[in-house]
Amino acid sequence: MKTLAKTALLATSIVVAMGGAAHADDRYGEQKVVYHINYDGGEDGKKYRGALVNVQNHINAVDKDQIDVKVVLHGDGVYLLRDAVEDQKLQSAVTSLKTQNVQFVVCNNTLTGRDIDPDEDLFEVFDDDIVPSGVAELSYLQGQGYTYVKP
């Protein structure tokens, strides 16, 4: 009888433990989110790396197959991809996020106004990544159901 009671207690404990641990997709469902970066990276790019850690943590919580993430860069935020050319940690973070289908969207107004050549000056920016206006893109994406996040 003691063995049966121990087995029942163990089974109950397992069920309770499993029931208490919600899966991310059960809690958060599918999400669309746009991260807005328009500031400089601070000392040694810490602000940029911190923002990218936020994006990664968000993906980890929701699951990469349950989330659509865009990172809109304009103004000083475009320098995240400039700094990634030389900064291996930043480059690694950007590359890792891109492999999880995160799109980095770059403002053409900033590129033009600051005379930045995306092919020469920025890390892995392609024609599909450039939008006419970063601010207008933020508004457009919010209208498409993307949640706005400013890390």
Characterization of the model:
The protein is of the alpha/beta class and 151 residues long. It has one domain (25-149): DsrEFH-like (Hypothetical Protein Ychn, Chain: A). Helices cover 51% and strands 16% of the residues. The protein contains 8 helices and 5 strands; from the N terminus they run ααβαβααβααβαβ. It has a 5-stranded parallel β-sheet with strand order 4-3-2-1-5, sandwiched between helices. The radius of gyration is 21 Å and the shape is globular. The protein starts with a helix and ends with a strand. Mean pLDDT is 88; it is low at 3-22.
First-residue to last-residue Cα separation: 57 Å
* Backbone CA Rg: 21 Å
Q: Give the beta-strand count.
A: 5
The number of distinct structural domains comes to 1
- The proportion of strand residues reads 15-25%
The pLDDT mean sits at 88
Poorly predicted tracts of residues: 3-22
Strand order of the largest sheet: 4-3-2-1-5
Order of helix and strand elements from N to C terminus: HHEHEHHEHHEHE
CATH-assigned fold name: Hypothetical Protein Ychn, Chain: A
User: What characteristic shape results from the CA principal axes?
Assistant: globular
Please summarize the sheet with the most strands.
5 strands, parallel
CATH class: Alpha Beta
In short:
With 151 residues, this protein is an alpha/beta fold. 51% of the residues lie in helices and 16% in strands.
Topology diagram in text:
Elements (H helix, E strand, L loop, with lengths): L1 H19 L3 H5 L2 E7 L8 H17 L4 E7 L5 H5 L4 H11 L4 E5 H6 L4 H4 L8 E2 L2 H10 L3 E3 L2
Parallel strand pairs: 1-2, 1-5, 2-3, 3-4
